Amino acid sequence: MSRIYTEQEQVRREARVRMEEEGVNPYAYSWDVSHHATDVLAAFDEEKHVADGEGEAPEKLTVSVAGRIMSRRIMGKAAFFHLQDESGKIQIYVSRDDLPEGFYNTVFKKLLDIGDIVGIEGFVFRTRVGEISIHTEKLQVLAKALRPFPVVKETGEQTWNEVTDKEFRYRQRYVDLVVHPEVRETFRQRARMITAMRGFLDGRGYVEVETPVLQPMYGGAAARPFTTHHNALDMKLYMRIADELYLKRLIVGGFDGVYEISKDFRNEGLSRFHNPEFTMMELYVAYKDYAWMMALVEELVEHLAIALHGTTELQVGENRISFQRPWRRLPLFDAIEEKTGEQLFGKTRDELSVIGKRLGLEVDDSMGAGKIIDEIFGEFVEPHLIQPTFITDYPVELSPLAKKHRSKEGLVERFEAICNGKEICNAFSELNDPDDQRQRFEEQVRLGKRGDEEAMQLDEDYLRALEYGMPPTAGLGVGVDRLAMLMTNADSIRDVILFPLLRPEADDTRDQSADDAPTQP
RNA sequence: GAUCCCGUAGCUCAGCUGGCAGAGCAUCUGACUUUUAAUCAGAGGGUCCCAGGUUCGAGCCCUGGCGGGAUCACCA
User: Fold this and answer.
1) Nearest alpha carbon to residue A40 among A112, A137, A135
2) Based on CB atoms within 10 Å of each CB, which residue in A20, A38, A94, A491 is the most buried?
3) Of all protein residues, which has its CA closest to the C1' atom of B40?
């Protein structure tokens, strides 16, 4: 595959060749790093490392760092540049006479560019203007960048030429991460959040497990699956849409608490809140019910906010959100009545249809009672729930895996936590009556036959497991990406997913011959 | 899938009523041993997203497509 190089690429490729001619390996094997950039700043001690003017020689703080050249200021026989590593930036000072004969003029000045990765060994000092810097005693090229980087310039207050093209940033996330330290920080926070979540769950003795991604039958959520094919077994497989049914089999098997943090896949549209593959945490705890689970969710999310930010109060977009326990608890029908003045409990499907239309919704004949209620909630209530709120007790027809309510006819023991106008989790007292579960599945199959593409399949093996007896169980599903959006103040799910799904680009990054590659039967 | 907005140099962006494609940074050449958006002097760099159309002439107008964003739909 060949590609026409831009002027700047040609210059960099020539530099790479000339480096090799000079005996400098443009792709070194290793470099011993003693400090990150921020460690250097922290380790520098004014008392010890700066001459005190009374003739006493300062102590030398020698460090070794590695990173990418982000800017260059060359002044004849000396130069400054900023080196960026994972922690941040540190200024490097280079002078001709401190490097091997000729290296400064031929290699440093002529063959190194912004974006190249180098190792620097030297001592730390403070420049005349006051910036803590490293005086280079040894410079090694570690990796030559053959493509030019976007050069972002900044002072304390202002930034120039920042990469703003979202497409560029999502497609070339590696570049986005280099030029936007805050993006690195977002993903570090995401990682910390998941670590804290895992710690919270492990600390309570729940067992982290792994269940199949490739499944002969999908279930556990209302969604359309991706399909794939296993060649050796010549079998259609689905990629999981939820972990639920497998995890509850494990509760049958005698685990008292299991959880899984994993990717789910749903064959749906893309939006600010939806990526076809996304991360879910599901937890099932035996002998507990949804009221107990509510308390756990509050505690978990409060714990995460403190672990990440040291406080329970976060700024998310326009809103100041407090995750401090306890959160408001509000039955679904009361929430709807509060916002619309309509009490929907006990209403027939046709009465709901009339109310829905009166409220201005489009209601068609295919929509059941539960669907109409869900629409009214989604339109008039959910967007207005900014502070974390538990919405409880859903209609049974919306929740085929939840246990019927102990006291309210037609409802199930289910809650969702809503925050900043979006759901962050879904939980219920799990249905463990196998005969009731079979009827619910059969209803789903009827819906499927009527054309509901998101209806669940009847999972005989799951029913078999329930028939052996599953203890009363509380179950929870948390949208990890949605939660990460809240915790990092991101307004698009793409900002908390490193490589969000995009349409393929027609460009130079794919080999032409790939189009001729054999496809799987 | 629908609607609206966007697509010009490596990056950020101008481009008038349709009249020779521009700037800053980056790159190249030269000067400069504590600079910091380094500075100074000079130079090169374009499939104006793609394909048609209108026109003497299209970056600009029209049609279709591709890609992205936002909103909606779908969906948690």
Assistant:
1) A135
2) A94
3) A75
In the 59-78 segment of chain A, residues within 7 Å (Cβ) of strand B are 71-78
Query: Which nucleotides of chain B does any protein CB come within 7 A of?
Result: 1, 9-13, 24-29, 31-39, 44-45, 66-76
> Does A105 contact strand B, using a CB cutoff of 7 Å?
no
Chain A 207-236, CB < 7 Å to strand B:
221-223
Q: Which CATH code of 3.40.190.80, 3.30.930.10, 3.30.450.20, 3.40.50.720 fits the domain covering A182-327+387-495?
A: 3.30.930.10
C-alpha to C-alpha distance for A92 and A73, rounded to whole angstroms: 10
For strands A389-395 and A328-331, give the pairing.
parallel
Beta strands A277-286 and A473-479, pairing class: antiparallel
CB-based contact A240:A223 (threshold 8 Å): no
Q: How wide is the angle at C-alpha A513 spanned by C-alphas A509 and A514, nearest 5°?
A: 65
Domain ranges in chain A are: 7-149, 182-327+387-495
State chain A's mean pLDDT as an integer.
91
User: Does residue A377 approach strand B to less than 7 Å at its CB?
Assistant: yes
Within 7 Å: CB of A416 and strand B?
yes
Is the pTM here over 0.80, yes or no? yes
- A173 CB less than 7 Å from any atom of strand B: no
A179-182 CB contacts, 8 Å cutoff, 24+ apart: A179/A149, A179/A150, A179/A152, A181/A88
Q: Is the CB of A97 under 7 A from strand B?
A: yes
Q: Please tell me the distance from the alpha carbon of residue A519 to that of residue A521, in angstroms, as a whole number.
A: 6
The ipTM estimated for the assembled molecules is: 0.92
The CATH number of the domain covering residues in A7-149: 2.40.50.140
pLDDT of residue A2: 63
- Nucleic strand B within 7 A of Cβ A175: no
* Tokens, residue A182: 């805050």
Encode pLDDT of A58-102 as tens digits. 888 999 999 999 999 999 999 999 999 999 999 999 999 999 999
